[in-house]
Amino acid sequence: MSNIFDPIQAEKLKKAKKITVWTIVIVFVVLLLAGSIGTVGAGERGVLLQFGAVKDKVFDEGLYFKIPIIQQVEIMDVKMQKDEVPASASSKDLQIVTSKIAINFHLSPEDANKVWQDIGKDFNSRIIAPSIQEAVKAITAKFTAEELIIRREDVKDQIKMNLAERLIKNYIVVDDINITEFDFSKSFNEAIEAKVTAEQLKLKAERDLERIRIEAEQKVVEAEGKAKAIRTEAQALSSNPKVVELRWIEKWDGKVPTYWGGATPFIGINQ
Description:
- There is one protein chain.
- Helix content is about 55%, strand content about 25%.
- It is an alpha+beta fold.
- The chain folds into three domains: about 80 residues, no CATH class; about 100 residues, Tetrahydropterin Synthase, Chain A, CATH 3.30.479; about 55 residues.
- The protein has a three-stranded antiparallel sheet, covered by helices on one side. It has a three-stranded antiparallel sheet with strand order 6-7-8. Strands 1-4 form a two-stranded antiparallel ribbon.
- Strand 6 and strand 7 form a beta hairpin.
- The longest helix has about 55 residues.
- The protein is elongated, with a radius of gyration of 49 Å.
- The N and C termini lie far apart (about 180 Å).
């Protein structure tokens, strides 16, 4: 019986080996194909490396092909990113200024391979933060502390321009910056507060002076009006004696005096 089934068993074993081999081959091919295909997402770029060396090829968004094992692709984010860095500097009048700069930036898409080769992915701490420090120091030194407050928008624009020139050398594009904080020493803040208070008091004094001047002018006008009325009435009395009698009668309360002298107390009583 064993002699009869030996050829059958041998054939089955041979077929099983073939299936196993083909399975391994297919799996290997699938793995090779899978390793040679990849995708780059929206707002990203693929940096091609061959045996670890950076190649000139930069993959755009979408599907890419590479040689398995020999080549690999590193993904770089080229979308707008945000960073916030504290900075300290001295003003033109030697006041210590502390600030916090918020920057919006993105990597130059066509130079993603150069960023990977020269800097790597740690460009925030290696390039951006030091560049912000230097830009803030360079521009802050051009303004007095008071000018930094009054001309804040101008200061911001100059810092942005200076920073953009520094970062573009490393293939980093500045989109915008904002000065989220701008603080000075306690003594300077107190001096500014005292100056503001003095200006407010000066303004109040000027307003009070203006009010007093207007009130004085109003009194002069009022006095002139009264004087004119008196002159007019005096002219009327002098030109018509009966007006005097009329004014006396208007003011009489209707009571007869308790003492009678030789003269008649009523003007025109004989009439």
